[in-house]
């Protein structure tokens, strides 16, 4: 695995990496535009100009078309598509999930993908939808794993083989499936059957599915989130450790006259202005776009531009170490995404394992920031602080500072720490001057922890906020509490 995927930069569980295929190396995270071999909506060269490094198409559609089938076998997949970079091929599992059956076996579709020269092939797994019975999900996992095992045993050449992780909405089954596939040593691990969750805006459950799947995989494994094509969720999904995304949304939305932004989608008929400066939007007004004969193609191009723009911003955020700030901003664009953000921070203990231990600074973006892995990381290390003698805990300097042996800083949401660390990470966190209840609570809990582990010290806590919290009563039993606004 390490020979084909190299991680070069990390933030949260997100990463920038290099995935090596026989048709070139791609930088992740990235989007694979979905290509319908029968009806390409955008010229392939234009797709490359917009940012496409790798494409994905459906080998089952090619297999069923006599014209496409023969050309793919005779000339190869890349000649058929007109693309000289890496191409991933799906197996027909989506058709299986929609129509209930496909006219091909697992062995046949894998063999066909190999013959036409696919760079990343997908066996015929069973995409178990959300909310089926536990027994059904477990049974279909067994069938999927058996098929994948046979595919892995048969194909060992330089064609990369994907092992889709299934398990419906059951976290334990997702993790178990991922563990079993890890033992089979696949090259890429798609997380399958999540489109229904995204269609129903069940982003919170999507977080559970991604994290449980990731827990069963090696941290170094490249992960593909099947069917995730709308940019409003990319930051969250990358932060959870997804590397590859396939987007049919750019085309499907365009055909329905829908205009994609990172904050949601507009119907073209409702647009009076174009809130974008991509080449399409820079050359058309909203009215001109509505009346253009080729507006479906133009919308598809705009949608693809926006999609790649967001992914570039995400990669820059990983470089800067502020991916979680971007996640929090994006997740406030929709209530269901905000719910997903809260769910993500339920896994802060897991995120903390992969989050870099040093960054430039943190920006507090709201109550959810109190649950960030950096805050948890500090809480686990409070025991390293030893306090002897007298100590003052305060948020701003006081005239009494010189009267104490130790000067400690109180800064929500972190808590209490030596003032000498104030300009270092993570204590240089940028916060608001009037902390919210959640950040005060976490900071007070950490302060109580510090006081409890130094019973011989004499603490004076100068609380300088007018927001009351019940934990102050407990602190008053442990230290000399001075409430500035009383």
Query: What is the subunit arrangement here?
Result: single chain
Compute the gyration radius: what is it? 26 Å
Q: Which topology of the largest domain does CATH recognise?
A: TIM Barrel
The structural class is alpha/beta
Tally the helices: what do you get?
A: 21
> What is the annotated CATH architecture of the largest domain?
Alpha-Beta Barrel
For the secondary structure, the number of strands is 18
Q: Percent of residues in helical segments?
A: 40-55%
Q: What does the model show?
A:
The radius of gyration is 26 Å and the shape is elongated. It is 43% helix and 17% strand. It has two domains: 5-353, Alpha-Beta Barrel (TIM Barrel); 368-483, no CATH class. The protein has helices at 44-50, 59-64, 66-75, 77-81, 93-99, 106-116, 134-154, 171-184, 195-199, 203-216, 234-239, 249-255, 279-283, 286-291, 295-320, 323-331, 335-344, 348-354, 373-380, 437-452, 471-478; strands at 5-11, 14-21, 24-28, 30-35, 55-58, 87-90, 120-121, 160-161, 189-191, 223-225, 244-247, 258-261, 264-267, 390-394, 406-411, 415-418, 458-463, 480-483. Helix 7 (134-154) packs parallel to helix 8, helix 12 (249-255) packs antiparallel against helix 15 (295-320) and helix 18 (348-354) crosses helix 19. A hairpin with a 2-residue loop joins strand 12 (258-261) and strand 13 (264-267). Strands 8-7-6-5-4-11-10-9 form an eight-stranded parallel β-sheet. The protein has a five-stranded mixed β-sheet with strand order 16-15-14-17-18.
